[in-house]
Amino acid sequence: MRTYRYFLLLFWVGQPYPTFSTPLSKRTSGFPAKKRALELSGNSKNELNRSKRSWMWNQFFLLEEYTGSDYQYVGKLHSDQDRGDGSLKYILSGDGAGDLFIINENTGDIQATKRLDREEKPVYILRAQAINRRTGRPVEPESEFIIKIHDINDNEPIFTKDVYTATVPEMSDVGTFVVQVTATDADDPTYGNSAKVVYSILQGQPYFSVESETGTYQFKTPESSPPGTPIGRIKASDADMGENAEIEYSITEGEGLDMFDVVTDQETQEGVITVKKLLDFEKKKVYTLKVEASNPHVEPRFLYLGPFKDAATVRIMVEDVDEPPVFSKLAYILQIREDAQINTTIGSVTAQDPDAARNPVKYSVDRHTDMDRIFNIDSGNGSIFTSKLLDRETLLWHNITVIATEINNPKQSSRVPLYIKVLDVNDNAPEFAEFYETFVCEKAKADQLIQTLRAVDKDDPYSGHQFSFSLAPEAASGSNFTIQDNKDNTAGILTRKNGYNRHEMSTYFLPVVISDNDYPVQSSTGTVTVRVCACDHHGNMQSCHAEALVHPTGLSTGALIAILLCIVTLLVTVVLFAALRRQRKKEPLIISKEDIRDNIVSYNDEGGGEEDTQAFDIGTLRNPEAIEDSKLRRDIVPEALFLPRRTPAARDNTDVRDFINQRLKENDTDPTAPPYDSLATYAYEGTGSVADSLSSLESVTTDGDQDYDYLSDWGPRFKKLADMYGGVDSDKDS
């Protein structure tokens, strides 16, 4: 027998205790005092000290649904420069200024004029300022403050359905899931218990019960959870054992079929609900799913006892995560005329906190994208304005970045590109496209075209350039040339008479006025130089007065002069080189007597070739005491035979300089010397040295190692040798 039972479900919400915000202590904000010179009428200047500004608030929060007869008091704005003489005026701007919120311009008291609903708008951002009533100038910088609306329990919970219908098999075990009921409350869930919902059953006991806080399964997950994140577990009971107790879970119905997934934990036979797609608290805060649990293994003989499955409702609440502000556009494109004055507003950007708290944001310009600080932004409303003059011809596009930052959490910020196009204004005059210098033949006819003129303009008018050409007024009368405007941004210079005489007038200077057709009209004057030249019968120029610009059959005078100069310079260079060759200076081998070191001096003397084997006797150089053998030159036939000269032996104490000079003199006076350049080496190693020869060539003939410790006693000049030879033994020992 199946019976139907009905029960009533009662829900109630906790009533929070009345809360009132107490007056806060005096809050002071402002800037360090510093002097500022204000420009007054005439040439007089006064010094104005800018002192700190004091804000005094009775409360920062207003209760919603205020039912009092008087306006609800918000706070008070007071400046230290207010002397109570009525010279200052307080003004208010921002959300609801002048409508929801008003300010007494004399006392600075701020009041709310209407009942406020937190569910409609929870936060108001306003700005206040004190200005001089007489001059209208601000005496304090504009300051921003926030008014938050306190929630009261003025909304009742509402079920998501008017009627819930459910069935339950008879003989069901205690604890069997029947249905999921859900109610929501529009009050503030972050303040008090106004939005907390509690469930209870009015009728239907003792057969049914309800979970007082959730109504059944309920999970929470932050909106930042990546796909695959587990949210919670659900459990279905099965009295069987083994594979007959295995359970499969699946989502069959609900709002989050594509947002969530469920898998079975094979060890615990629980259903694990995971995130399938990225969540967004601002788009959807609650998802309701129907999860079904079933047996994958059912014996056919027991099918008549089925169905072997059950379902449960799962409620998933998405939790808000503090996210950075979001701009209303991915990018902004603004335009402004290049003649805009400083502080001209171009446009604005808008960004909001996507979180439920709707935290206020402030704006700034990334100065890395605006190094010259050409633009600025109002930190409160995002208005973009100029801080310097613009020039389209210098830079057409300005690409800057605007930053929006949460006031309560500066770490949360976002950026948006802002492209500003500078619109053209006719502020440049047209000018010649190039420097024009032309000629006219002496036998030219009247109305003959001698030059075509073109102009350019830095401006870029919307309808294109339209130039006009004319002779300057001072040259229009009595001119020997005329200007013909072709109406296509070009003009021609025409002759006005037959024949010109270069001896009477060799050069004409024509001032030409070029004007544009934009507003305001801009014009400039350019000069065209016209030379009178002699031409052939084809009109080709041959010569022009004292200057020859281009000659068709030869070179110009300037070119000939340049060629002659090059030739003269080349001849002078050759003569100087020959003189230097004849007057070669022979530098001394050793400049200082103290500098007793091996020196190599190259005389660049060329030998007699491969056959020149008797030009010198190298044995003499190796041993000054050797006697030269009488050998005749085999490479030449001498006119007279001279006996070879015997070179006297050098004394033991002969100075190197004297030895070299002696050998040089002997070679210069030797009649048997070859009559052409030869290489003569005057190397000489003195005798009587304590160290004997320092050459490494003879060191190989020694029978044993030598002691070079005495080199360290010879002073700094031999320090390098002492280091090289003195450390040999130590190296071997190591």
Automatic annotation (TrEMBL):
One of its GO terms (cellular component) is catenin complex. Residues 79-159, 160-215, 213-327, 328-432, 432-554 form the Cadherin domain. GO terms for molecular function: beta-catenin binding; cadherin binding; calcium ion binding. The keyword Membrane applies. It is a single-pass type I membrane protein. The chain crosses the membrane at residues 559-580. It comes from the Eukaryota. It holds the Pfam family Cadherin. Its main location: membrane. It is found in: Cell membrane. Keywords: Calcium, Cell adhesion, Cell membrane, Cleavage on pair of basic residues, Glycoprotein, Membrane, Metal-binding, Repeat, Signal, Transmembrane, Transmembrane helix. Cadherins are calcium-dependent cell adhesion proteins. They preferentially interact with themselves in a homophilic manner in connecting cells; cadherins may thus contribute to the sorting of heterogeneous cell types. This is Cadherin-6. It comes from Ailuropoda melanoleuca (Giant panda). The lineage of its organism: Eukaryota, Metazoa, Chordata, Craniata, Vertebrata.
